[in-house]
Amino acid sequence: MQILVWVFEVLFISSLVGVFPLSLAETTSPGVCSEADRAALLAFKAKIVKDTTGILSSWIGRDCCGGDWEGVQCNPAGRVTTLALQGPVKDSSMYMKGTLSSSLGSLPFLQVLVISGMKLITGPIPDSFSKLTRLTQLVLEDNSLQGNIPSGLGLLSHLQTLSLAGNHLKGPVPPSLGNLRNLGMINLGRNSLSGPIPASLKNLHLLQSFDLSFNSLSGFIPEFLGQFRNITFIDLSNNQLSAHLPISMFNLVSLSYLSLSHNLLTGTIPEQVGNLKSLTSLSLSSNKFIGHIPASISRLQNLWSLNLSRNGFSDPLPDVSNRGIPSLLSIDLSFNNLSLGTVPKWITDRQLSDVNLAGCKLRGSLPRFTRPDSLSSIDLSNNFLTGSISTFFTKMTSLQKVKLSNNLLKFDLSELKVPDGISSIDLHSNQVCGSLSSILNNRTSSFLEVIDVSNNLISGTIPEFSEGLNLKELNIGSNKIAGQIPSSISNLIELERLDVSRNLITGTIPMSLGRLANLHWLDLSINRLTGRIPTSLLGIKFMRHASFRANRLCGEIPQGRPYDIFPASAYSHNLCLCGKPMPPCRGKKQETSQ
Length: 594
Hints:
Blueprint: H1 2-15, H2 20-24, H3 35-47, E1 48-51, E2 72-74, E3 80-86, E4 96-99, E5 112-116, E6 119-122, E7 137-139, E8 146-148, E9 161-163, E10 168-171, E11 185-187, E12 192-195, E13 209-211, E14 216-217, E15 233-235, E16 242-243, E17 257-259, E18 264-267, E19 281-283, E20 288-291, E21 305-307, E22 312-313, E23 330-332, H4 345-348, E24 354-356, E25 363-364, E26 377-379, E27 384-387, E28 401-403, E29 408-409, E30 424-426, E31 450-452, E32 473-475, E33 497-499, E34 521-523, E35 530-531, E36 545-547, E37 552-556, E38 576-578
Parallel strand pairs: 3-5, 4-6, 5-7, 7-9, 8-10, 9-11, 10-12, 11-13, 12-14, 13-15, 15-17, 16-18, 17-19, 18-20, 19-21, 20-22, 21-23, 23-24, 24-26, 25-27, 26-28, 27-29, 28-30, 30-31, 31-32, 32-33, 33-34, 34-36, 35-37, 37-38
Antiparallel strand pairs: 1-4, 2-3
């Protein structure tokens, strides 16, 4: 869903006239750099104590307008009009560390100010930015900015785009932002803002994109949202908004994306939802909605993603005809008060990519889908499904993730024939039997990253692991698996989480386990392991959780972080483990903590 949000916002920004990509493409030859503007830029550079992006290393020489100063554009008079410094958000090694200098407020001709994805720029947004009265684009996304949003930003009357998302800003949304009548896009998401959505924002009649998601905003969703006739994108998810949905919102015939998930909203979905004829994505998950899902939802001709999970919706589901919701690709009705019994035909007979019906009181055999080749993700967990799985995956050639946990499925792992491209299999808490070698062998796909078959009836031993596997999570806990942990476990070089607890595993913990450098969760508890905890585990630097409880281990616990600071319960009920955090080993003084 976050990818979907990103696509909507990129498309929106790119569509605005005069946005920064167009400004950067100006072909007019700039004049010689103004000395005052050059000084303001260098004062900003001085406040950045570390720059691994290398951008500021290009800021040398007298002429900041000659094209050599990366991210700087000027007008023919030599005045800086654009400062656009964009770091790669997903590359943690590329950042700027420091604070925003108030000197940037001394660039009177600045129209575009973009400092985004720099991760470690801290401190407040300078009040001096209120002097940038020519500014049309202000984007300070994905840094670590702190403090309140300056009310002075409401003086920037030409502003068309305001994005301060992905920082540590707190306090209220300033009512002064309602003065920005030219604003087409506002994104204050992923901060710690609180209080209500200010009534003054009703003045933003040109608004097309409105994102206040992932904050701590409270109060109700204002009626004035229904006045934004041009709006295409609304995301108020992950807040503490309450009360009913305003009826006015369902007059927004241009609205394409609406997410109100993870709030405290109550009441029902009104029949007027069918008026949102442009809607492509609707997410109301994790609220307190009740009542029936309205039949008018079938009139949403462009809707391709529908998420109503984790509410209190009740039977019956609307009777959707073959022509209803014709664009639907993804549906999530999980964890409501629905007692479906079987999956409705209007779901099984469609060409869907994602089907999520967890906790819908499904019974009987696994459903048959008319177009199994289109499915990429299925979640039918927490139901009462029974029987075998032998033909379920037939022709599911595009399937990547399947979750069938917490059902009553009863089959042998040898019957499991999964598609080659699958990346995640979750079958925990069923009645699955057989041997792990049926799914972990030299034919196991390199695409497979997650296997969870815990809390079943699986027996046999842990098979040898061949090279080339890309497993990140392996959970085989709470079964009847015996034998030893093979030393070839070290071939699972991508492994992040390993749980073999509550089995009958014997032998020693292999030294090779210490080669799993990405491991951060390890649970070997309640088995019959003997010998020592190998010191090779000290080579795993990012271990956050480990449990060796209730085995037959003996000897000194590896004396180094984090093993010597895990709670003693992680080592309890063994034969004779000693050393921090347990009592000292006999004949060896234990050092006191510094």
